[in-house]
């Protein structure tokens, strides 16, 4: 809850201060002298009041609270809710109504002007004026923290912090529940490109973790933003054995965690909502569970491990820091020295090291937990390439006599020729492609239901990435682009030539038609000749007689 929602005068939301406990203990000692002493009660009360700098009435009230239990806790300041209200009922009603109308609003105004309005309303009604502290103490008694957070804040996180969040994940066995997520790596890598210079950038890290053992099953390090491809690569490594993958990178360490997850918990990113991802999970018997909006803690296991891996990477040259303040003036790009391949090996070693580390809370080692509880897991020994094809992005295309058209390219293979006569009955074929190399696509065979490679019809088998293909087409379009005037210039010349090439007979025919049209005026008959107005006779002017002198 934000600080402006908290009642500073209440002790319900604060721990017991040391001075409060010390004061209560001092009062308890003086009250013990009154209860256990032999002096007259009234004289003992007067002496205790002088010692504690309280009134005798306050001492008697403290005795009433302390006499029953004889504990220091009974003398601690009481909560605002448990205090007896001494204000008139009408004043209490004005305080509650005004606070709900003017303070418990989404604009979250301060309490001082609202308290002034309460005092003004009480003065108009002829009632006692409550103080600012009195009004502040009524807030926790009138409104719950949930109501304050809901009415005075538009941020749902403030209300979420007030709700209990017990553990929701119950995974007694490995692979019962797994989680997958992405994050930018907190380190920069450097890559020298022949003829193009040096590239420095931050990769993206995707991992799959097992909730029961807290082991990391697989990861994927990519230069592009999280996509269907990075999810497919990560799941292919998590589901299949990793011996060949480790040997290709000269890593002689054990990483025996693999298998098909029974339940995969993801967020609502678009790469987890696609048709290819859902169809691949259905193919391997993996159920998908999406985190509800606003419940980020449901993915706490994988996010914690992502932070742990980033913490390891942040200790090496090229660290980008978790924030601008954390990075300070550190020259991340100039200090970067790891290549992409070296960085991938470092991430693999960090993952393997985590699998052998003891969890400080549960005192369990992921590697030992996996070996002890994974004896009954089925070993499907899935092929990494086949798993990757199941999760790669895809589409549906209609087969034509020329093959399959995709990305403005044409693909054909001899085994597709057998399906050409049946193309109308087969409908659209399911196609998968790897964006890293579109020299081949993969079409599901209607008979075997397996994906088979299909190469380009022009015979170009040089590996070509999808983004390079689109960039090349955009470059060619930019080169071939013409202005709007250039596009119509030749058409204008054609029109001029056509106009000049018209035969004399056509021109004469047009002239005759114009003459006939001018001679035959149907409206000329109805027109009346306008007569000229008659001339008005000249009127002789009458001269006035002039008297001569």
From TrEMBL:
It comes from the Bacteria. Residues 168-374 form the Integrase catalytic domain. Pfam families: Mu-transpos_C. Residues 513-525 have a biased composition (Low complexity). GO terms for molecular function: nucleic acid binding. Residues 513-549 are annotated as: Disordered. Keywords: Plasmid. One of its GO terms (biological process) is DNA integration. PROSITE patterns: INTEGRASE (PS50994). This is Transposase.
């Amino acid at each position: 809850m934000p600080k402006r929602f908290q009642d500073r005068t209440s002790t319900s939301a604060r721990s017991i201060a040391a001075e409060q406990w010390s004061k209560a203990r001092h009062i308890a000692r003086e009250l013990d002298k009154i209860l256990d002493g032999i002096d007259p009660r009234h004289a003992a009360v007067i002496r205790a009041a002088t010692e504690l700098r309280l009134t005798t009435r306050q001492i008697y009230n403290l005795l009433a609270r302390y006499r029953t239990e004889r504990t220091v806790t009974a003398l601690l300041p009481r909560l605002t809710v448990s205090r007896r209200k001494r204000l008139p009922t009408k004043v209490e009603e004005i305080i509650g109504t005004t606070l709900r109308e003017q303070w418990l609003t989404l604009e979250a105004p301060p309490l001082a002007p609202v308290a002034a309005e309460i005092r003004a309303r009480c003065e108009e009604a002829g009632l006692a004026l409550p103080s600012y502290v009195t009004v502040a103490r009524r807030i926790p008694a009138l409104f719950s923290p949930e109501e304050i957070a809901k009415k005075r804040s538009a941020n749902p996180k403030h209300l979420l912090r007030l709700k209990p969040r017990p553990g929701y994940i119950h995974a007694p066995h490995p692979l019962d529940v797994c989680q997958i997520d992405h994050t930018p790596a907190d380190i920069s890598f450097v890559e020298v490109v022949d003829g193009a210079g040096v590239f420095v950038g931050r990769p993206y890290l995707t991992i799959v973790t097992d909730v029961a053992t807290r082991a990391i099953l697989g990861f994927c390090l990519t230069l592009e933003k999280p996509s269907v491809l990075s999810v497919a690569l990560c799941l292919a490594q998590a589901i299949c054995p990793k011996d060949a993958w480790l040997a290709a990178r000269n890593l002689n360490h054990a990483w025996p965690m693999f298998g098909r997850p029974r339940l995969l918990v993801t967020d609502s990113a678009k790469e987890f909502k696609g048709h290819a991802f859902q169809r691949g999970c259905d193919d391997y018997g993996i159920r998908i569970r999406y985190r509800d909006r606003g419940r980020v803690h449901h993915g706490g296991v994988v996010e914690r491990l992502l932070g742990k891996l980033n913490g390891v990477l942040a200790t090496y040259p090229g660290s980008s820091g978790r924030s601008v303040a954390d990075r300070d003036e550190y020259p991340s790009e100039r200090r970067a020295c790891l290549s992409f391949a070296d960085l991938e090996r470092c991430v693999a070693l960090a993952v393997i090291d985590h699998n052998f580390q003891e969890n400080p809370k549960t005192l369990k080692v992921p590697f030992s937990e996996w070996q002890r509880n994974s004896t009954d897991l089925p070993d499907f020994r899935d092929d990494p390439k086949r798993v990757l094809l199941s999760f790669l992005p895809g589409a549906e295309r209609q087969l034509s006599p020329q093959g399959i058209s995709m990305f403005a390219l044409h693909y054909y293979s001899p085994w597709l020729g057998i399906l050409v006569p049946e193309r109308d009955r087969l409908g659209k074929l399911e196609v998968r492609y790897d964006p890293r190399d579109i020299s081949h696509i993969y079409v599901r065979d209607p008979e075997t239901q397996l994906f088979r490679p299909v190469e380009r019809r022009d015979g170009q088998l040089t590996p070509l990435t999808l983004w390079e293909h689109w960039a090349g087409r955009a470059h060619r379009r930019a080169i071939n682009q013409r202005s709007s005037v250039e596009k119509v210039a030749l058409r204008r010349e054609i029109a001029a030539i056509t106009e000049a090439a018209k035969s004399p007979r056509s021109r004469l025919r047009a002239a005759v038609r114009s003459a006939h049209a001018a001679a035959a005026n149907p409206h000329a008959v109805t027109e009346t000749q306008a007569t000229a107005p008659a001339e008005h006779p000249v009127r002789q002017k009458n001269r006035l007689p002039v008297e001569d002198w």
